[in-house]
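Can you give me the bound-state structure? Components:
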Amino acid sequence: MRSLLRQDGQFRISWILCYVPESFFKDTYFNFFFNMQFKRLLLIFSGVLLLTQLQGQTAVNLHPDQAGARINPEIYGHFAEHLGRCIYGGIFVDEDSNIPNVRGFRSDVIEALKELDVPVLRWPGGCFGDTYHWKDGLGPREDRPSIVNVHWGGVTEDNSFGTHEFLEFCELIGAEPYININVGSGTVQEASEWVEYVTSSNESPMTKLRRENGREEPWQVKYWGIGNENWGCGGHMTPEYYADLYRRFASYCRGDIYKIAGGPNVDDYNWTRVLMEKTARYPWLIQGLSLHSYTLPEGWLPKVSATEFEEDGWAKTMRQAYRMDELISRHSAIMDQYDPNQRIGLIVDEWGTWFQVEPGTNPGFLYQQNTLRDALVAGIHLNTFNQHADRVKMANIAQMVNVLQAIILTKDDQMVLTPTYYVFKMYSVHQGADLLPVNFDSPKYSFGGMEMDALNASASIKDGEINFTICNLDPENDHPITLTLTGESFSSSNGQIVTAENMQDYNDFGRPEAVTLSTFKVPAPKKNQLEVVIPAKSVVHIQLKR
Ligand code: AHR
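Here's the bound-state model for the whole set.
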């Protein structure tokens, strides 16, 4: 009887009513009514249960069938300037020093960099670049002239690290060199001769000089920057004036090279417009346009300590890191107007955190520590560059050793790998892979009136292997996600994580690492789905194989 009632509802009830005694009817009717109510309650209860479970669960969709632009390995590039202890002490020491070295290049630093697959290294500046005269750095070291490094601490630069040393260092670490030419205080002839000295195999005064200095064969140097921050330290020029000057310099820097024009300061969209308007129509003169933007949480001038901060300093820094996406989108939109086929690359050749120098250090040396906060900033930036792989063709963190958001710190013969180093190591899997779309609605992270996405991610595919990198910048809350690979299933997965107990944690000399790269347990995928919790204040990498 019960089943009849359940299946046939009211009509059946009235039918039954005619044939059953009243007492039975009462009973059955009661049973039916009770059953309906119970069902309803059960439904509501399971609904509530489901909702509670789904709340905070972010659905993330990855689309392996929609592979997009190739992520240029150069997006994972670096920058080394004659600034503070970046070159001298950080990369290059006296050959007779008790710090183990290969012809003056620090062995520990070389080994650490080789682990990272450094794709490209920019040199010699920065602001130093527009004061640098490359011929000062040739020949026997004892004969090289000394100059004053006017931008960085007024220290003596003895030119012992010059073109040959830079190119040898690039060979040792397996990186492509990127040389930045002096426009601010240099001449067209000096620029043109530098390119010839380095890249030409013809018979010429410059190639003769190179041979005399011990190098028979030319080097393969593809990337050449023509000027640096020419709106500021590189000459305080107007975009119109610089664009004309750029065209002149670029005309005489000949060969099969990739020429990069000095680009805007942060959100100076007019600079980009003028440069594109005046140069884009000469494809042989320009292949890239640079962009510089630092993460300065309190606006221009580094007012914030690298290690002593609370959640306010954390949130402001994250908000600032997110700005890179807007900058790239808006500069790219202008570039699209003059270069719809995206022939000209956007080269973000200076980015990173800029905090106060460590107490007691030379303010002109820009030496700062590097905490878990920097790791998150690196993760957000690298995800952003990946997402813009169609336009962003190179990016160079500032700087490689001992300066600003350094990946490596040194003190005499000791070396520390920073949290940023580990993020670069984790993300190196994206180099040369194809970008995959990732769709999700991120939960929000709010603090002190600021609100931003708590999760930030990117994904790529190479040789059938999918790499997904995600930052949870919420310092308090873990965020569970369900990762779905649309239309595909995968059989194995593994993960890595960079996190720490406190957001202020950093690695220091003579003590065990507080922030490092560890294995992250990823549960077994169920067909094309994976449920995983992204811990608070962490950068996570999940690798999926079919
Ligand atoms: O990276 C430090 C300095 O920042 C560079 O020399 C300059 O280009 C920028 O302003």
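A couple of observations. The chain has a mean pLDDT of 91. The CA atoms of residues 83 and 358 lie 15 Å apart.
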